[in-house]
Amino acid sequence: MALYSLPARSAPRRPAVATTTLLLLLLFALGCQRWLCVHGFYIAASAPHHYRVGESLPVYWNKIYPGRKLLGPSLSYARLPFVCPTDGNDMPNANLGQRLAGDQLVRSDIQLSMDRNITCQVLCRREVDGDAVEQAVHLVRQHYMVEWFADELPGTHPWSNIMDKQKRYGDGFPLGYYDPLEDKVFIYNHFIIQLLYEKPERDPNQRLIVGFEIYPKSVESVGRTCPHDASVPGMPQQALLPSTQAITYTYSVLWIEDKQMKWGERWRNYLNYENDKSIPVFSLVNAAIILLVLTIIIGVIVLRVLEVNFPLIANKDNSEQDELHGWKQLHGDVFRPPEQADLLAVLVGSGLQLLASVLGVLVLGVLGIVNPSYPGGLITWAIIIYMLGGAMSGYMSARLNKTLVGTDWKKHAVRTAILVPGSLYLLTVLLNFFGWVEHASNTLSFGGLVGLLALLLCIAGPITMAGAYIGDHCAALRHPVRVNAVRRAIPPAVWFMQLVPGVLFAGIPSFGAIFLEEHLIFHYLWSDRFYYFYGYTLVSFVLLIIISSFVSVSMTYFQLCNEDHRWWWRSFLFGGSVSIYIFGYAILYFLLRLQSEGIISTLLYLMHTLAASVLIGMLLGSVSFLCTYYFVRRIFKVVKVN
Ligand SMILES: *[C@@H]1O[C@H](CO)[C@@H](O)[C@H](O)[C@H]1NC(C)=O
């Protein structure tokens, strides 16, 4: 057999080397993940502001947003009909990311002067009508959270764990609370603002702000006066009733020197790197075990394909041998271009573009460049990298198209530039429309939408076209075996290798690997805590990509062994099918954990999760397709020798 003309000396080592490398990478990844969780760092957005004693500094009011994010619109705090009106101007320079996140900073009337305590100060007495009270009740019952800023820090409501008494920073502070015993809603109308500062050693007259804590209280309003002492328990509280006429808002300010905290570390409490012990290493070990099993499967496949490591099996000339090499019969069909090959090329290209965007943001997060001290930074970077990634998308799409279809690269490039970015744009418009209906602050104005469209057409489009131009001018990918003119009949497959069961089955290992993480991500997404574990997310994400690619390769191999040559689309679907489970999980989570609060929030939730699942599926499908393509070309090189 000519198969033995393979270089028998070097080949046997390769799978072993590959497996060892993978294992080492895995250990390294786990180590990195631990390290990143404990020693995460970030790069500050701006230089520290040194305050003199008595220097005034503004408090900015930003937005309120549902504690269970995505389940409702974000609204501008200053424009609510039941809080103090302010004539402060909006901060002018909001970036695109901030707009999309609904950030609208408005200067409030709260007076802060460095190191001057205020016992109690009336902010305003706001007259309210029935509608305003009703809206307030609705928002409080939806767990709405308030976000203020001072010195670029979001105001936070600290809480501590009973177990370790560690102070942790929550995300904003609640608008009010609902007491189920009395069936009454209370609004927080007295704010104890506690500012922590650092005295730099060099100049004791200067102050640096290292913490902005807000302890909201509900105190029954008696005219335009300050509550006697809001911290005494058992004081009457400000309920929201149909009879409520006015709400008095008051605040007090305490300046406290923090001898431990340094300005350069002031985000630590928000990031909770050291505090949060609940990060399950377990879930990554789980993913690692799945990866190990898959690595072994792939290793065995590679060994079988190369045969050199199994001289015993190879010498046995039995029927089992033929069964294992059924795929070799397919050499005349395996590279026959699939139906809709141009669409496949577009999807693979677009998937790579998404990959660039997600990986890019996560890496920038790990490097500390994307972090919460840049409001809107995450979304802005994601959009920039996505647009630049168009070059990759255009290139890959054009090259695949040239290989599989061969004609008309310009039309194809336009399609690549439009299909996925255009759908994302339409989705943004649709979500915006919902936002306008609900007067949300996380909407773009009409001008903003036009600007985004211009960005897509004038920058992202040409970048994609340029990539496609290069892709088309590269040689078409070469296949090791030629396609026969006659199509080979496909024998009937066992039921679990048919299209639908096969694709569903392929999603299970990947979902198993991320199941625990997904639980965690959902938990944090719907709770009121910062969650910025970029390193952890990056490692999990890379594991997910490797696992789904491995699954796709193995499933494709088994299918080829069954003499079914339709692998092009299937390898894409095998890799992407985990998104079906992710979407199913999101629905289940919605039904079990979150109560639906009206048709619009249900729709919003469904649209967000569906879009996210489709995008994840496309991303994983695209990488899996490319891995499988490489694998198939590799194994058919062996046949060529034969
Ligand atoms: C402000 O109040 C805090 C807490 O009671 C106290 O530690 C601090 O010394 C006070 N600052 C001034 C300037 O009075």
From TrEMBL:
Keyword tags: Golgi apparatus, Membrane, Signal, Transmembrane, Transmembrane helix
GO biological process: protein localization to membrane
Keyword Signal: yes
Localization terms from the record: Golgi apparatus; Membrane
Sequence intervals crossing the membrane: 281-306, 343-370, 376-396, 417-437, 449-471, 492-516, 536-560, 572-592, 604-632
Family: Belongs to the nonaspanin (TM9SF) (TC 9.A.2) family.
Protein name, entry field: Transmembrane 9 superfamily member
Originating species: Syncephalis pseudoplumigaleata
